[in-house]
Design goal:
2 domains, 6-stranded antiparallel β-barrel, 9 helices
Length: 409
């Protein structure tokens, strides 16, 4: 690959190299030297800097010497605003462990004559019955409504028997999963009791720009109330480009340090507003790449989960592939590899082999553009699709259907 990173594959249903962060493992720590305000003096002394930078460095050094620099950063103010609403989510579930049982009543197995008849040696160990064990996990979340509703990741709370929420005040409260959506990896948990609960302000992820400050808050490796700082590295990073094919997500990429246990915690802007829900991190080579679900998308899904217990996702019933030019290079557009019989695309007249050139009036560069356009269109509205078939350009009107009605996700 051009960036020098190893290719991504699937490992146990998850993209190798990326992990969804729900386990708590104690790391090794190494002490790092501190720099302090001596950096200002180094900045002034560095040769080759432009005069403006030298002037800024001189001013910084003078301000440091005069004690004029503020002792608290914007990060401290942002965390004060939202930190109390960031929670730890501890989960438990019972897991059946096969024990190799035979299905024969235990009393018969203990009978010496029965054992002799079937060739069982007297000292042969008895087959073990299936056992149960508790499996524990941990993640993060953020309270986004005063009635105790928490946003987190679906993979943090799915298939759990018990959810316990820890607040920064030290209070521990039982939680109930209101609903989860695997396709977007989002879930809503409701705190028991009436509060009052601290609430995090939600920002506008559509207003983000590459280079904006990004503050991650959560509980990596079980270390409560951890804060890290970075920037917004990229916007609209498609999950499919990361090798994740079972999610429908355009992600925020950040270099703020995010680790296992941060799953479901908030990504904040400089004002302390939640602009994303942390969900993925790259492990191994290329570590330092982390991804969050934009809060505008999360807010929409959360509203559906609270209202209906599930989220609805529009689909048109096609499998798409990359267009290949005669020389093998990828071309523009999206190739319709197959059409679901009786689905919306089939009813509208789309055929296998069609190439989608534009959708909703916008040119299609790759298959993910079609998925994004269908999602943005929603349900209950026709979607205009321009296709090329046998050298001719055709216009097709498709009414998207609900993905949940065509099988499991």
């Amino acid at each position: 690959m051009a960036d020098g990173l190893p290719p991504l594959g699937l490992l146990g249903g998850k993209p190798y190299g990326f992990e969804q962060m729900c386990c708590a493992v104690m790391p090794r720590f190494r002490a790092l030297p501190t720099a302090g305000l001596a950096a200002a003096a180094l900045l002034v002394a560095m040769p080759g800097l432009p005069e403006a930078s030298m002037a800024q460095g001189s001013a910084l050094g003078a301000a440091a010497g005069a004690g004029l620099l503020g002792r608290q950063s914007f990060v401290a103010a942002a965390v004060r605003r939202t930190g109390p609403a960031v929670v730890t989510i501890d989960t438990e579930r019972l897991v059946q462990t096969p024990g190799g049982g035979t299905g024969v009543p235990r009393g018969m197995l203990l009978d010496p004559l029965f054992r002799q008849f079937f060739g069982m040696m007297p000292m042969m160990p008895m087959p073990q019955a299936p056992r149960q064990r508790k499996e524990r996990g941990q993640g993060s979340g953020v309270i986004f409504q005063s009635d105790g509703l928490i946003l987190t990741n679906a993979h943090v709370v799915e298939q759990t028997d018990r959810v316990t929420v820890g607040l920064q005040s030290g209070q521990r409260v039982e939680g109930k999963v209101v609903g989860l959506d695997k396709l977007t990896d989002l879930a809503v948990v409701k705190l028991s009791g009436n509060g009052p609960w601290p609430v995090a302000p939600l920002g506008n992820s559509d207003a983000l720009q590459v280079g904006d400050w990004a503050i991650a808050v959560g509980n990596p490796y079980g270390l409560d109330n951890t804060v890290t700082l970075g920037i917004i590295s990229n916007l609209n990073r498609k999950a499919s480009k990361l090798g994740i094919t079972d999610k429908r997500l355009d992600l925020i990429q950040t270099d703020a340090a995010i680790n296992p246990g941060n799953s479901g915690g908030p990504l904040l802007n400089a004002d302390g507003e939640v602009v994303g829900i942390n969900t993925l991190v790259r492990s191994g080579p290329g570590a330092g790449l982390a991804f969050a679900i934009p809060i505008n998308r999360a807010r929409n899904i959360a509203g559906q989960l609270v209202a209906n217990g599930r989220a609805r996702h529009p689909m048109i019933g096609v499998a798409l592939d990359v267009v290949r030019l005669p020389n093998g290079d990828p071309g523009t557009g999206a190739l319709v590899a197959s059409v679901q019989p009786g689905g919306p695309a089939d009813q509208a007249g789309l055929r296998s082999g069609d190439v989608i050139l534009a959708i909703a009036g916008r040119p299609v560069q790759m298959p993910s553009d079609v998925i994004s356009a269908v999602e943005a269109n929603g349900l209950g509205r026709n979607l205009s699709i321009s296709v090329q078939r046998a050298g001719q350009r055709l216009q097709v009107e498709v009414m998207p259907g609900d993905l949940s009605q065509v099988g499991s996700r």
